[in-house]
Amino acid sequence: MAENKYPEDEFDLLAKERTVTGTHRRVKSNMSWWIALIAVIVLAPTAGWAYIHFLGVPNFNHSARPSATSTTSVSNEPSEESTPTSEMSESSPALSPSREATPTPSPTPTVKVDHNKSVVVFNAAGVRGLAAAKQAILEKEGFTSISIGNYQYEKPAASQIFYPAEADEATVKAIATALGISESNFILNADATKGDQIVVVLAGDI
């Protein structure tokens, strides 16, 4: 049978572009899509709950919060820094003023100069009449028992005063002031005084 050919028109072009080749093709089902959606909705919360409870994620529940009772008890405890100064001064005896009377210091007994003390003045300076001149000065100061002489031993570099006891210090100071002898040259030596007298040795510094 001879095949009839017609000129290709616009309907033939549209037929070539269609993907459906038959009118009786089976329609695809959407059941698989719905199953996937339900699986996501159901399994997602279950997986999250399992992750929280089994993988150590902190549980932020109300039991971890501090109770109002514990907060109140801590805030009500007194602080050492908030203690008023007035309470500390009243309770501490160290900060309160002392009411005890201050003891009055006993007066130092005054040592009087003994103008009747025996005094010997030796001339060790080699200056004629020096001992007599100093004797006159001491007599004017009130001393009543003064003797003079020449020093027979090695001459000292500075004038000296020998005295037998500490009780004679006031008398020695009075003699030294009158004669111009330094206190650094006072010598406590009972043997050098030959008894109970004060010995003055006049050197070249006078």
List keywords for this structure.
alpha/beta, 206 residues, Alpha-Beta Plaits, 7 helices, five-stranded mixed sheet, 5 strands
Structural account:
The protein has a domain of 84 residues: Alpha-Beta Plaits. It is 35% helix and 11% strand. A five-stranded mixed β-sheet has the order 2-1-5-3-4. The chain is rod-shaped. The protein is built from seven helices and five strands. It has 206 residues and is α/β, with parallel strands linked by helices.
Strand order of the largest sheet: 2-1-5-3-4
Instruction: Calculate the mean pLDDT score and round it.
Output: 75
Main sheet makeup: 5 strands, mixed
Task: State Rg.
Answer: 64 Å
Q: How far is the first residue's CA from the last residue's CA?
A: 179 Å
Q: Give the CATH architecture of the domain at 119-202.
A: 2-Layer Sandwich
Q: Enter the CATH topology name of the domain at 119-202.
A: Alpha-Beta Plaits
The unreliable regions are 66-78, 80-93
Kindly name the structural category: alpha/beta
Using the alpha-carbon principal axes, give the shape: rod-shaped
- State the helical fraction: 25-40%
Please tally the helical runs, counting DSSP H or I stretches of 4 or more residues.
Answer: 7
CATH structural class of the domain at 119-202: Alpha Beta
Strand content range: 5-15%
Order of helices and strands: HHHHEHEEHEHE
- Count the strands? 5
